[in-house]
Design brief:
Radius of gyration: 18 Å
CATH class of the largest domain: Alpha Beta
CATH superfamily of the largest domain: Gcn5-related N-acetyltransferase (GNAT)
Order of helices and strands: EHEEEEHEHEEEEHEHEEH
CATH architecture of the largest domain: 3-Layer(aba) Sandwich
């Protein structure tokens, strides 16, 4: 039997499980923020395609022009996330989702597809070695070890925006840029705020709530970016112990 995949739409998004956080019927603030953010993106060509299950098995991508990332190029798709949880691996679901994205891009006359990677695989980024099996190649890099992977169908270029390569800001305080694209962000931000208040650690949190803000960020971004001592540190969604470790450096 063929696996049953489907796309979220304005008609079904209110009722469908969003994959990342498994919960009971009790509302979860991160999930509801994600649902609101995603509802506003669907009419921009944003795609969230998932397996018909309550497990994590989905791909999420958008036209680069409206993707909330500081990457520039014309007529590309940007993959935010391709995630198949360990209990669902080995069934070809990841391959099916990537092939759907590629075929969708070709059918719509796109020049290619791109995604964020790093010299060392990051926990909160899609598996780049998997993407490379489909022909994705590194087309741009930053000094902090991040790279842009792209699959170009017609040779068209895509690159980080120049501002994304700055990777510095004017304050030494712990600073986090974030948006609500990921349902884990809401809880991570609240936990870190609480810790920093209790520990008297100066903290700046910047909600990236418009496309323009995202395009103008001074670092790579997938939905989260953390600075400390004026220098970009990571796109990983850090927990409190990880923040404590960072502050001791």
């Amino acid at each position: 039997m063929e696996p049953e995949f489907f796309n979220l739409t304005p008609e079904n998004i209110a009722e469908e499980h969003l994959c990342c956080i498994i919960r009971t019927k009790k509302p979860h603030p991160g999930v509801e923020e994600k649902r609101k953010w995603l509802s506003e993106r669907l009419n921009e060509g944003h795609v969230f395609r998932k397996l018909n299950t309550k497990g994590c098995c989905f791909i999420e991508y958008a036209p680069l022009e409206t993707a909330w990332v500081p990457i520039v190029g014309n007529n590309f798709y940007y993959i935010y996330c391709l995630w198949v949880s360990s209990d669902l691996k080995g069934n070809g679901y990841g391959k099916a989702l990537m092939e759907y994205c590629i075929e969708d891009a070709k059918e719509k006359g796109k020049s290619g597809i791109c995604m964020l990677g790093a010299d060392k695989q990051k926990n909160w980024l899609s598996n780049q070695s998997f993407a490379e099996k489909f022909g994705f190649q590194t087309v741009d890099t930053t000094n902090k070890g991040y790279k842009l992977l792209a699959l170009s169908f017609d040779g068209a270029p895509v690159s980080f925006a120049e501002n994304a390569k700055t990777e510095k800001i004017d304050t030494d305080d712990l600073t986090i840029y974030y948006d609500m694209q990921c349902p884990f962000v809401c809880q991570k931000i609240e936990d870190i705020k609480r810790y920093c208040t209790d520990a008297n650690v100066p903290l700046n949190t910047v909600c990236v709530d418009t496309l323009q803000k995202a395009k103008n960020l001074p670092c790579p971004f997938n939905n989260w970016a953390l600075f400390y001592k004026g220098v970009f540190q990571t796109v990983n969604l850090l927990d409190v112990p990880s923040v404590q470790k960072l502050l001791k450096r």
